[in-house]
Specification:
- The complex is a heterodimer of chains A (197) and B (251).
- With 197 residues, chain A is an alpha/beta fold.
- Helix content of chain A is 23%, strand content 34%.
- In chain A, strand 5 and strand 6 form a beta hairpin.
- With 251 residues, chain B is α/β, with parallel strands linked by helices.
- Chain B is built from ten helices and twelve strands.
- Classes of the chains: A alpha/beta (197), B alpha/beta (251).
Chain lengths: 197, 251
C-alpha cells in the first residue's frame, strides 16, 4: 500500500502520519506530482487559512492535479474545504470537486468550534463500523453547507456537512487522526477502499 | 451537540510530570507519555503539557516528549511553557503538538499572538492567562504567577482575542491549588464578553466543581491536574455525573 500525504506546507501533518503509523502504515509525505499520481491512496490535509493554502497549491501545480486523481483521496479539515467550489475565508476559489460553498459560523456561537461533536446521517463506506452520533474532534471556523454530496452531518449553530463524497473523493471536516478509536476506524475504512488506479 | 471538554494538565519538568500547589512544592506524578496514553484511554478530551523546565536541556527533553506523545496518543494536545517565538512554535507543531499555549511572552510582546495566528491559524493559539483578584480587580500576573502586571484580565483577554487567539486558558491564582472550586464569576464574564472558547483552570477538587464551572462559569472546557493524577476523580465517573446534570459530554 502506497499512501501519500500531500505535503504542500499547510499545517500539522505529523499527527496524520503518526495516526497511520499506529495502524501499521508508513505514509509518505510528498508534493511530487508524479509520486502522488502513482499512490494507492492520497491524503489531502490542511490547517490554516484558505487563500494562502490555495496559493501554495497553485504554486506547486497541485491545484490542477488533485481533481484529476483516480485513486481514493481523503481531504481533512481545510483540505476538505479546499475541495469545494468556494470559501468565504479570503474569498477563495477552491478545487471545485464538491459542489458546495464554505461559509463562516456567525458570532451567535463561539468561533472556532473547538472540541468533540457528534456525526449523524452517516452514508458512506468511510463510516463502516462507526455508529450514528459518534463523537469526532473538530476545530474550525468555516463549514460546508449540507448538500447532495454530504455523507455525514454535524450541528453547530446549524446543521452542516461534516463529511462529503463524490466518486473517489472524500472529505471530512473533523480530524480522524485526533478522534480516538472512532477516528482510527474511519482511517482503517479509508485504507480498505478499493483503488481503481 | 458540541460537548464540554475535560482536560488533564501535566506539568513537565525535565521530562517528568510534576504538579505545583500554588505554583510551588512540586510533587512527582509520573511519566508523561504513559500518563497521556492512559488519559486518552480513560476518556480525556484533550491534554495540556506545560513545560516548566528552566534549562535548555529541559526544553530539548520536552521536544522529544512531544514527539513521543504524538506518536502514541490519539487525542489532541496543547504544549505550553517557555514559548516565545514563531520558530519555537514551528518546532513544536512539527513534533506533533496540535496547539500551543503562550503566556508571559504574549504579555511582553503582544504581536506574537498575531504572528502565530497568521502563520499557523488561530485554532492552534491558546493564550494562557494567570490572574489574581486584588481589591476586587482581576490582575494579570507574569512568570508563573509571580509578577503582577498592570493588565486587567478582561481587557487583556479581549485584546488577545482581537489579535487572533483561538482560545483562552484562564487560571485563577486565588483558586489554584485550593481544591475549593473554579473562579466561576470571572469565567462567566470572560465567556460572555468573548467569542472564543474559555478553559477554566485552578481550583478543581470535587465533581461538583466541574458541574458548577460548566453551568455557572459558562466554561467550554475544564482543566485540572492533581485530582486526576492522584486518582481522586476518575474521568469516566466525572463525565457520567456531568451527563446527569444535563451537561453535554463525550462518553
Amino acid at each position: 500500500m502506497k499512501l501519500i500525504i500531500i505535503d504542500y506546507g499547510a499545517g500539522n501533518i505529523k499527527s496524520i502520519q503518526f495516526a497511520f503509523k499506529r495502524l501499521g502504515i508508513d505514509a509518505i509525505l510528498s508534493n511530487n506530482i508524479d509520486e502522488i499520481k502513482t499512490a494507492d491512496k492520497v491524503i489531502f490535509p490542511g490547517v490554516g487559512e484558505a487563500s494562502s493554502a490555495m496559493k501554495m497549491l497553485r504554486e506547486s501545480g497541485l491545484d490542477k492535479i488533485i481533481p484529476t486523481l483516480k485513486q481514493p483521496v481523503l481531504g481533512i479539515c481545510l483540505g476538505m474545504q479546499l475541495m469545494c467550489n468556494f470559501s468565504e475565508e479570503g474569498n477563495t476559489k477552491g478545487l471545485g470537486i464538491f459542489d458546495v460553498e464554505i461559509k463562516r459560523f456567525s458570532n451567535a456561537v463561539k468561533v472556532p468550534q473547538m472540541g468533540w461533536n457528534t456525526v449523524s446521517n452517516l452514508k458512506s463506506d468511510l463510516f463502516t463500523g462507526v455508529k450514528e452520533k459518534e463523537f469526532m474532534y473538530l476545530v474550525h471556523s468555516f463549514y460546508a453547507e449540507n448538500c447532495k454530496e454530504s455523507i455525514a452531518t454535524t450541528t453547530y449553530e446549524t446543521s452542516y456537512a461534516a463529511a462529503l463524497q463524490k466518486d473517489n473523493f472524500y472529505g471530512v471536516q473533523f480530524h480522524p487522526e485526533k478522534s480516538s478509536v472512532a477516528g482510527e476506524q474511519l482511517l482503517k475504512n479509508f485504507l480498505a477502499l478499493k483503488t481503481d488506479n | 451537540m458540541l460537548t464540554k471538554r475535560i482536560i488533564p494538565c501535566l506539568d513537565i519538568k525535565n521530562g517528568r510530570t510534576v504538579k505545583g500547589v500554588n505554583f510551588v512544592n512540586l510533587i512527582d506524578a509520573g511519566d508523561p507519555v504513559i500518563l497521556a496514553k492512559q488519559y486518552a484511554e480513560l476518556g480525556a478530551d484533550e491534554l495540556v503539557f506545560l513545560d516548566i523546565s528552566a534549562t535548555l536541556e529541559g526544553r530539548k527533553t520536552m521536544l522529544e516528549m512531544v514527539l513521543k506523545v504524538a506518536e502514541q496518543v490519539n487525542i489532541p494536545f496543547t504544549v505550553g511553557g517557555g514559548i516565545s517565538s514563531v520558530a519555537d512554535v514551528d518546532l513544536l507543531l512539527k513534533s506533533g503538538a496540535d496547539k500551543v499555549s503562550i503566556n508571559s511572552s504574549a504579555i511582553k510582546r503582544p504581536e506574537l499572538v498575531n504572528e502565530l495566528a497568521e502563520k499557523f491559524g488561530n485554532q492552534c493559539v491558546v493564550v494562557a492567562i494567570d490572574a489574581k483578584q486584588i481589591n476586587g480587580e482581576w490582575i494579570v500576573h507574569l512568570a508563573g504567577g509571580t509578577i503582577p502586571t498592570n493588565l486587567n484580565l478582561f481587557d487583556w483577554a479581549k485584546e488577545v482575542e482581537a489579535r487572533g487567539a483561538g482560545e483562552i486558558l484562564f487560571t485563577s491564582m486565588n483558586n489554584d491549588g485550593t481544591k475549593a472550586g473554579f473562579a466561576n464569576e470571572a469565567l462567566a464574564k470572560l465567556s460572555t464578553e468573548l467569542n472564543i472558547p474559555i478553559i477554566a483552570s485552578g481550583g478543581a477538587g470535587t465533581v461538583q466543581h466541574f458541574v458548577d464551572t460548566f453551568k455557572m462559569g459558562k466554561s467550554d472546557a475544564a482543566l485540572a491536574a492533581s485530582v486526576f493524577h492522584f486518582g481522586e476523580i476518575a474521568i469516566l465517573d466525572l463525565k457520567q455525573a456531568l451527563k446527569k446534570h444535563t451537561i453535554p459530554v463525550r462518553i
